[in-house]
Amino acid sequence: MKVLKKILSLTAAAAMCLLICSCDKKDSDGGTDILRNGAESIVPSRSELIDNTKDAGYTVTEFDDIYDLKVSGERVLAEKDGKFIDMCYGLSEDDAKEVYRYYETKYDPQLKSGEYYMLSRNQNFVYFVSDKSTFKVSGFKSTDNDGEQHIYKE
Description:
- By secondary structure, the chain is α+β, with helices and mostly antiparallel strands.
- It contains 6 helices and 6 strands; from the N terminus they run αααβββααββαβ.
- It has one domain (33-151).
């Protein structure tokens, strides 16, 4: 009986170790990468976004300002056949929050109608993406987020 209790105890302890270890692993979609390495681990760099969308036939426009907001950062708009991504780079945390609120207003009709894929403030990045295919083409590695996010269409 003592041997059976020891075997059961050791089995339970091994199962707990496996469970704890597997919870820390990242999944194939990026998982905990964002917590370890920041949003840069899943968000395409500015040049990667530009290259990827141009290669896919999108028209890309680069801006040194973000609308009429008094924030410091850069904006990339890639458009093709009514699909688009509007993404901001180089924002401080406070500026990212301000741009996110602005995007909520600017893209309010799409948000209310559900005609969009994602609006995100992911650490210091802000992006509005019209559809899942544009999201994939852009070079995102995951939908993981460390900020605010609305995802409408999966």
